[in-house]
Amino acid sequence: MATEVCCSSGSPSNNSNSGSGSIVTDSGVRNYITGSGKGRGLVLIHDIFGLDIGQTRQFADDLAAKAEATVVMPDLFHGGEAWSLARFPPPDKTEFGNWLSTTANADKAAKAILDQTVPLLKQRIDPSAKLALLGFCWGAKPAMLLAAAAGSPFACAASAHPAFLTADLVRAVRMPIALLPASDDPDMQKLLEELRDQPFYSRCVHRRYDGVSHGFCAARGDRNDAKQMEKILDARDTLAKFFIDNA
């Protein structure tokens, strides 16, 4: 779901803000790490443009502070190139599809988070702290795969402007989730209804952001625009409350 929106909405850019966090290389993988909260750990899954986008890092910084969390955003393309801003929208949909199934394979990303990111994050938080997930756009799919996995180490999962989600995938999740679509994203409330019979349904969150386009929390967000910034901060606050309540 939302593949078309992912490929057509907004104008992605990089404001070149390096963020207040730091890059830590672990087992050959670059990770953007921000925040010092010991109470909870958060894995942030970047969108197709990778972890070097200034707006994405700034959102991670803001969320870490608001949610009193330590945030780790790993490079889930593992040496492969993120999709170039200059080549967006993708001029060749076949090439883009091949890239999604190889460099940006969601199943491989989910496995990498379990094998590499979770151990790194656990080193930086209290042993009793809970873990949570947040995925932007493409990152929604690996986030929900992990939310559906048996024995998942995560307590909850969320996505801002989600893409590539299906009813079958959402139906399989085993924990509270939050979905924050933009005005041009598909109806995500229908997806949440797949969980109506689950005991955690009442803790799930849906909030639609009218007036901003898909990607507004990340590469397609203009932090110099006051109206967009109002929505970005509201999304940050909504996610922070969700994580505090559930992790």
CATH overall fold name: Rossmann fold
Rg to the nearest angstrom? 16 Å
Q: Give the count of structural domains.
A: 1
Which structural category do the helix and sheet elements fall into? alpha/beta
Can you identify the CATH class?
Answer: Alpha Beta
The main sheet comes to: 8 strands, mixed
Order of helices and strands: HEEEHEHHEHEHEHEH
Proportion of β residues?
15-25%
The chain-level mean pLDDT equals 94
Helical fraction equals 25-40%
Strand tally, please?
8
Principal-axis shape equals globular
* Strand arrangement in the largest pleated sheet: 1-2-4-3-5-6-7-8
The CATH architecture would be 3-Layer(aba) Sandwich
What does this structure look like?
Residues 8-22 have a biased composition (Low complexity). GO terms for molecular function: hydrolase activity. This is Dienelactone hydrolase domain-containing protein. Residues 1-22 are annotated as: Disordered. It comes from Macrostomum lignano. It is a single chain. The model has no long low-confidence stretch (mean pLDDT 94). Helix 5 (140-148) links the parallel strand 5 (130-136) and strand 6 (154-160). Helix content is 34%, strand content 17%. With 247 residues, it is an alpha/beta fold. The protein is globular, with a radius of gyration of 16 Å. It has helices spanning 3-8, 54-66, 93-101, 106-122, 140-148, 167-171, 189-192, 226-246, and strands spanning 22-26, 29-34, 40-45, 69-74, 130-136, 154-160, 177-180, 205-206. The longest helix has 21 residues, at 226-246. It has an 8-stranded mixed β-sheet with strand order 1-2-4-3-5-6-7-8, sandwiched between helices. It contains 8 helices and 8 strands. It has a single domain, classed as Alpha/Beta hydrolase fold, catalytic domain (Rossmann fold).
